[in-house]
């Protein structure tokens, strides 16, 4: 395996002038220098595009493109079309890389030849930092079994993000994602499906290489529960993908359903906390219960399924309330769901104050 791999680092840029210099400096300061840095100014209304141009004048490895706003999916596809590296690294414009990221990735790729490397990250929250690493049972594992990797990645939201993956360029086949351009949340998982299908091997490594900033102004953290309607388009795409692959067993689907039910419980918790009125809460909950995805996949509720190695399930109390919530949702007991989540929130708040 070539020990001097060229990386393409790809960053869609939109309205991040406050964080962009730190993002760019983290790339230019890498201890490994064989890379190109593609910055796609996605019609940013602030000075982000100008900042990109200023840095490009200083370092010839930076390539800047300016385009009309089209969303994160289109911007990443645009960058992929321009990239000429052997491996791709995805970096959001309000985040940054550890300075040894490329050096570490180059070493692991040279040793393993893996098509996709999955690594840990630091979660930068206001006032504190959390480290999210690959579990010991996964670290060092080079996985080639499709059913195995689909179970691991699709049942763990922590592996959905493109920015947690370094991917061989041949894993992207130029498929048409235009029907997903409008999606603002969950688009990473949609594009990860292409990687899951085309990569021949996956390697989980113990190193923390990425720093993810909780930016309240970003799309991910700007939920509005005013006029909320459930959107399971991404989850439906996952089911379509799995159906075509034909590798999942009935138990695998039950395991996926259980995890999706846990995700729904979290979403119901947010609705009950943030929707502005009781009427708005009821309407938002009803949109989940009446969705085609619920009727097609979630309606059977929780089913017995063996856990995966390293799988983190909700604790006893949360597991009980999730299952109770699922029964209430199935029975359309929306007011009971609101009351239950209100009590849980007040209890947690009271305990936290002690």
Description:
This protein has 354 residues and is an alpha/beta fold. The chain has 12 helices and 10 strands. Strands 1, 2, 3, 4, 5, 6, 7, 8, 9 and 10 form a 10-stranded mixed sheet that branches. Helix 6 packs parallel to helix 7, helix 8 packs antiparallel against helix 9 and helix 11 packs antiparallel against helix 12.
Could you write a compact summary of the structure shown?
It is built from 12 helices and 10 strands. The longest helix has 25 residues. The chain is globular, with a radius of gyration of 21 Å.
What key phrases describe this protein's structure?
354 residues, ten-stranded mixed β-sheet, 12 helices, globular, 10 strands, alpha/beta
- Give the end-to-end Cα distance, rounded to a whole number of Å: 57 Å
Low-confidence stretches: none
Shape: globular
- The proportion of residues forming helix, as a percent range, comes to 40-55%
Structural class: alpha/beta
How would a crystallographer describe the biggest sheet? 10 strands, mixed
Number of E-state strands: 10
Q: What portion of the residues fall into strands of 2 or more residues?
A: 15-25%
- If helices are DSSP runs of H or I spanning 4 or more residues, what is the number of helices? 12
SSE order? EHEHEHEEHEEEHEHEHHHHHH
Instruction: Calculate the mean pLDDT score and round it.
Output: 91
Radius of gyration: 21 Å
């Amino acid at each position: 395996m070539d020990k001097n791999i060229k990386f393409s680092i790809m960053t869609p840029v939109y309205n991040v002038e406050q964080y962009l210099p730190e993002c760019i400096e983290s790339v230019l300061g890498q201890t490994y220098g064989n890379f190109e840095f593609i910055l796609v100014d996605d019609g940013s209304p602030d000075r982000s595009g100008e900042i990109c141009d200023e840095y490009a004048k200083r370092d010839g490895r930076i390539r800047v493109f300016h385009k009309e706003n089209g969303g994160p999916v289109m911007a990443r596809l645009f960058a992929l079309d321009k990239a000429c590296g052997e491996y791709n690294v995805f970096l959001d414009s309000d985040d940054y890389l550890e300075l040894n990221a490329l050096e570490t990735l180059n070493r692991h790729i040279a040793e393993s030849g893996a098509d996709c490397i999955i690594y840990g990250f630091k979660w930068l929250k206001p006032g504190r930092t959390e480290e999210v690493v690959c579990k010991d049972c996964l670290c060092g594992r080079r996985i080639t079994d499709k059913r195995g990797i689909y179970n691991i990645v699709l049942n763990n939201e922590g592996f959905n993000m493109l920015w947690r993956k370094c991917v061989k360029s041949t894993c992207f086949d130029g498929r048409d994602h235009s029907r997903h351009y409008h999606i603002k949340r969950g688009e990473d998982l949609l594009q990860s499906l292409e990687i899951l299908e085309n990569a021949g091997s996956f390697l989980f490594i113990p190193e923390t290489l990425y720093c993810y900033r909780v930016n309240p102004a970003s799309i991910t953290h700007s939920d509005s529960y005013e006029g909320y309607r459930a959107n399971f388009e991404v989850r439906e795409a996952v089911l379509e993908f799995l159906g075509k692959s034909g590798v999942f067993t009935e138990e695998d689907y039950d395991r996926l359903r259980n995890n999706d039910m846990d995700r729904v419980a979290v979403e119901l918790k947010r609705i009950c906390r943030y929707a502005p009125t009781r009427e708005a809460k009821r309407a938002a909950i009803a949109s989940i219960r009446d969705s085609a995805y619920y009727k097609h996949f979630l309606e059977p509720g929780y089913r017995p399924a063996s856990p995966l190695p390293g799988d983190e399930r909700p604790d006893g109390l949360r597991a009980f309330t999730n299952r109770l919530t699922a029964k209430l949702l199935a029975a359309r007991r929306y007011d009971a769901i609101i009351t239950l989540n209100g009590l849980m929130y007040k209890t947690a708040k009271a305990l936290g104050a002690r």
